[in-house]
Amino acid sequence: MQSIFANTADGSGVLANDATLTQQLKDYETIIDSEQQQAAFDNIFKHFASESLAIPIDYRSETFITSNKIKEFNYSGFSDGPIDYATLKVK
Predict the structure, then answer these.
(1) 62: domain range?
(2) Most exposed: 14, 23, 48, 49, by fewest CB within 10 Å?
(3) What stretches of 1-91 show up as alpha helix (H) in DSSP?
């Protein structure tokens, strides 16, 4: 959720990172109070909206179409994060 990954000759790595989102997520994990947690997530989703970040929520049939440019693709098993970016390989 914090980064976009890209493959290099040395393996996969971070292509882009949203510093604001990263900090918001780090701050969230320290909050115990449920009302403060909700306020923190409200701010996270406001950031999504302001930056036009898209997070897929549900893949009903879990069907993915790839091209011959994809060397390796693995489904993570999670509907809210279906692509296993650590193993994704692009030719």
Answers:
(1) 58-91
(2) 49
(3) 19-28, 34-51
